[in-house]
Design goal:
With about 300 residues, this protein is an alpha+beta fold. It contains four helices and twelve strands, in the order αβββαββαβββββαββ.
Length: about 300
């Protein structure tokens, strides 16, 4: 078969390019589109508010937050834990009362069975002349009249709405009367507060203050938020952005580039600005990007799945 161009429609074979073009025009297939930088959180924005941080702090995992937002989050979680603890204490008291009531009912049942066992089961029959006959044993088999009454249904009712049974029937429109409804089990709530991004334990004392170095560009007319390039590395003076991996030095909170860390700081493990000895845990890599559209900067493709075009 001879080769033909993409737009050639005279061939007898339905080519891949024709199938792809027809799928795009007809609404079938999967559309893939790369998200722009507007859909990615900036490196200096809070992971909760997605706005530039006024008082930035970073966790030990490298997630940046605004101090006001993360403290409000922690306070909210503590209040929620206090509310859950009160509910837990209430349910626990209810369970203790139920256990005590059940034990009391069992004890009462044992006492009743013991008293009934001590009572005589037969009674002597007295005749008019004063003689006492042999006591008649209780007959465990039902009498003929009882059987007849059960068969006719005249005197003994077998309905579940008679003899007080209507009060014991379950009510499926009332949760308290539903046969499957029961009290919620008392489960002690977890007092640990987790990071909203990494879901790791979060404490206030683990938050580290971050200090960004302003970029010296001489432009004083525009505000800081309006500028695309706002901060720089205090050591190499490289402009910081989402495309530049950064790290936070724990002792001072300065934000430097990872290139500076690998080439300058890791050689002697000394802080270039304060000459202070550093440890490996003092270098915290700053997490970049990540919004509701994309978790990291490595995968920024949005896909829309549609019905496939079958040939």
């Amino acid at each position: 078969m001879t080769r033909h161009a993409r737009n050639c429609t005279a061939g007898a074979v339905y080519t891949y390019n024709e199938k792809k073009r027809d799928a795009a025009e007809s609404g079938y297939g999967t559309n893939a589109k790369r998200l722009g930088k507007d859909s990615v959180k900036s490196f200096d924005c809070c992971s909760l508010t997605l706005q530039p941080c006024r008082n930035p702090v970073v966790t030990k995992d490298g997630f940046l937050f605004d101090k006001e937002a993360i403290l409000q989050y922690i306070v909210t979680k503590k209040n929620e834990h206090s509310r859950k603890m009160k509910e837990y204490e209430r349910l626990r008291r209810v369970e203790e009362n139920e256990i005590a009531q059940e034990a009391s009912n069992k004890q009462q049942a044992r006492m009743t069975s013991f008293v009934n066992a001590e009572k005589p089961t037969t009674t002597p029959a007295h005749k008019p002349n004063g003689t006492v006959t042999k006591p008649r044993e209780l007959d465990a088999t039902p009498s003929t009249s009882a059987v007849a009454a059960l068969s006719s249904g005249s005197s003994i009712s077998i309905s579940n709405m008679a003899n007080g049974h209507e009060k014991k029937l379950p009510s499926f429109w009332l949760p308290s009367e539903c046969p499957n409804a029961g009290l919620a089990k008392a489960q002690k709530p977890d007092a640990t507060i987790y990071c909203p991004v990494s879901m790791q334990p979060l404490r206030v004392k683990d938050l580290i203050d971050v200090k960004f170095t302003l970029l010296k560009d001489g432009d004083n007319k525009r505000s800081l938020i309006a500028k695309e390039a706002r901060y720089m590395c205090p050591i190499t003076h490289d402009v910081l952005s989402n495309a530049v991996p950064c790290a936070v030095l724990r002792p001072t909170g300065d934000v430097v580039t990872l290139e500076c860390v690998d080439k300058l700081i890791r050689k002697d493990m000394i802080h270039p600005l304060t000459d202070r000895k550093l440890k490996e845990k003092d270098i915290i890599q700053l997490q970049r990007g990540g919004t509701g559209y994309a978790i990291t900067n490595d995968n920024l493709n949005a896909k829309e799945k549609r019905p496939m075009l079958q040939v």
